[in-house]
Amino acid sequence: MLQIVENAKNHLSNIAIKSNELSYTYQDLLTVSQKYATGLLADSKNLMGARVAFMVDPGFDYVAIQWAIWQAGGVAVPLCISYPLPSLRYVLEDTGAAIVIATPNYEEVLKPLIEEKTFRFVSNEELSKAQAAELPEISRDQNAMILYTSGTTSLPKGVVTTHKNLEAQISTLVSFWEWSAKDHTLCILPLHHVHGIVNVISCALWSGAAVEFMEKFSPAAVFDVFMKNELNVFMAVPTIYYKLITYWEQQNEETKVEIFKNLSAFRLMVSGSAALPVSVMEKWKTISGHTLLERYGMTEIGMGVSNPYNGERKAGYIGQPLPGVSVILVDEDYKEVEMGQPGEILIKGDNVFKEYWGKPEATQKAFTPDGWFKTGDVAVYEEGYLKILGRDSIDIIKSGGYKISALEIEEVLRKHPEIKDCAVIGVPNEEWGELVAAAVVLNNQNINTDELNDWIRDLMPAYKTPRKYLVIEDLPRNAMGKVTKNDLKTLFK
């Protein structure tokens, strides 16, 4: 039994999805997804864990196809709609996808792969001609989805979650963030990533709430939806909040007052997928009246830590472990550190993924012998709240015997009036091990780095301040808005 599908039966007449200026009820979603599932099954009774990749625009068909794959006993493999052909080939070959579904607008992109006939290709139009029939019983222990990690250090790994894992991830957030059938949210996040699939779409649909999709992102279009007074939940990444703030600053005072009135009526606003600059959090509060709820998660765990829904949300902190999620901080020997000392975050719980697809050695390496998942993120407890110091491999700079948090330096740099954005990395150095280096995006291209250095040394210890600066037009980012620091390292070379 798929709980998300069972829950939908309690809300048949509610609007489930709004996309392309059309509204679809939960009854529509159940009817169409069951029809699609029958089409996927063809002559078989159960897909028995076959991987089914799909390349579909965000909207009703995306959700109906994902639900259809699950109901037919398949494993959903969402394809990033902006991937080039080599990346698509990698995912299809790595998963050994038996079936690929695409809407007509993506058939041309996939054409070279379709012609190789290594999988059964089905269009969504073909699925819509099927007649709904009896569907198999699905176990919670079956594989449900494979999402690919960003692969900054090697080829991307396929993260396998079971239905039990997904249900734990979704139900925990629904309870902790107090989702209900009265909620209405907007999804503007990529749908090959846990943030969009789990936190936005699945939490809403588990609860009987409505999810609205946008054809193309633009700050103006988002504010147009805000001003309809229908939404009450919004989730985005820091980059999107930054773009919305920039748009807001261009509006007249009358419009700003109207925006504040509408946004302050929201129930919940969340930021995630990358560190939220305190400056962005503070600015958004002046615009909306909301202290953004920051949380911590990753493809392998869904969400593990969150600031409270009710209670103090601390700027610069990710919060406390979610119910049912165990968290410890450990040293390099995987021994638990004392309170107040930094350590790598280890996590246990039903939310934690099953395995990396086809990579038993990588899976084994990702866990301690007693089953704790190694996140690779370093954090510290301060006054009961977890604060991320960075990823051990990227954000923790080891210079002159010190361990320095790149995120801390970035937060200070962003306070400079001429710095629009920045990213800090460690670059190899024979004498120091690593030198602190900062890439900065400026409002004024004529900034003097000597003056900048004097300024930052008044705000933090000299050993933490950048020794190298690079002025660039924009920071390299992935689809979720995270700065790709390995790309930055090549620029410093």
Automatic annotation (TrEMBL):
<protein>
    <submittedName>
        <fullName>Acyl-CoA synthetase</fullName>
    </submittedName>
</protein>
<comment type="similarity">
    <text>Belongs to the ATP-dependent AMP-binding enzyme family.</text>
</comment>
<dbReference type="Pfam" id="PF13193">
    <property type="entry name" value="AMP-binding_C"/>
</dbReference>
<dbReference type="InterPro" id="IPR045851">
    <property type="entry name" value="AMP-bd_C_sf"/>
</dbReference>
<dbReference type="InterPro" id="IPR000873">
    <property type="entry name" value="AMP-dep_synth/lig_dom"/>
</dbReference>
<dbReference type="InterPro" id="IPR042099">
    <property type="entry name" value="ANL_N_sf"/>
</dbReference>
<dbReference type="Pfam" id="PF00501">
    <property type="entry name" value="AMP-binding"/>
</dbReference>
<dbReference type="InterPro" id="IPR020845">
    <property type="entry name" value="AMP-binding_CS"/>
</dbReference>
<feature type="domain" description="AMP-dependent synthetase/ligase">
    <location>
        <begin position="6"/>
        <end position="357"/>
    </location>
</feature>
<feature type="domain" description="AMP-binding enzyme C-terminal">
    <location>
        <begin position="408"/>
        <end position="482"/>
    </location>
</feature>
<dbReference type="InterPro" id="IPR025110">
    <property type="entry name" value="AMP-bd_C"/>
</dbReference>
